[in-house]
Amino acid sequence: MNQVELPVFDDAGINLADPHDRRGLKTDYISRLQELALERIVGRGSGPALDLGCGYGRMTSRLATLGYRMTGMDPSLRVLRYASLNQSEADANWCVGKLPELPFGNQSFPLVFLLNVARPLHLLGLLDCCSDAARVVSKGGRLIVLDNIRRDHADYVAEDWFVEFFQRQGLRLRERIAIRSSRWPVIYLIRYGLVPRKWFDRIANWELRRMARRKRAPRWSYHNVVFVFERA
């Protein structure tokens, strides 16, 4: 039996999982919702793709099921050890590395994911490191950014920052879609086991339809938002 425990925090003390989600139900639901959202937004495909700041491989393995040859990169060998042992069924390679020192050439990936990475970098004062994520996006390729967006709050990256920053790196915004609200009462019912797993897909699809109409992030909570950037 695998003795490596799920890493709740990374080496910088940023949480990789909700420490209160003892059953893992909330994480499983959010992972499924994000998987469904990315399948619709990014689509199924083939070829290489890079998941930067992949953590313990929660989404890397799910993206691999869409057909991509995933490389999951994280600065923590400890966290990647868990990924390699527990996501072994995924068609993925695991690589130690960090922004802004990616060991890849310019424009070397047609698809790059930056999922829930920008805000931790912002809190650490390292947000400009994201320029290296844009550097490795090939011509005609896409950078998929998923992050928590909240208006007028210093602990969150402003939505305009994403657009303006990546434009300066030679990428244009192609699409912006909200996919989840943080303070939705149903998520608490899920966390405490009051919603059967068999309902997760139905609830996630309903939430995705509901959130797609939200064009502006709130001030009192945050939205999960997906940005699709493209290099012309």
Write the CATH architecture name of the domain at 45-181 and 216-231.
3-Layer(aba) Sandwich
The H-and-E topology, N to C, reads as HEHEHEEHHEHEHHE
For the CA atoms, what is the radius of gyration? Answer: 17 Å
Portion of residues in beta strands equals 15-25%
The major sheet is characterized as:
7 strands, mixed
Biggest β-sheet: strands ordered side by side in the sheet: 3-2-1-4-5-7-6
Which percent bin holds the helix content? 25-40%
Tally of DSSP helical segments: 8
Number of strands: 7
CATH superfamily grouping of the domain at 45-181 and 216-231: Vaccinia Virus protein VP39
N-C termini distance:
48 Å
Alpha-beta content class: alpha/beta
Low-pLDDT regions: none
CATH topology of the domain at 45-181 and 216-231: Rossmann fold
Mean pLDDT: 91
- Overall 3D geometry? globular
Q: Just give the CATH class of the domain at 45-181 and 216-231.
A: Alpha Beta
Based on the model shown, name its key terms.
232 residues; 8 helices; alpha/beta; 7-stranded mixed beta sheet; single chain
Structure description:
The chain is an alpha/beta fold and 232 residues long. The protein contains 8 helices and 7 strands. The protein has helices at 25-41, 60-64, 77-86, 118-123, 131-135, 159-168, 185-191, 200-211, and strands spanning 48-52, 69-74, 92-96, 109-115, 137-149, 171-181, 223-231. The chain has a 7-stranded mixed β-sheet, sandwiched between helices. Helix 1 packs across helix 7 and helix 1 crosses helix 8. The termini are far apart. The mean pLDDT is 91.
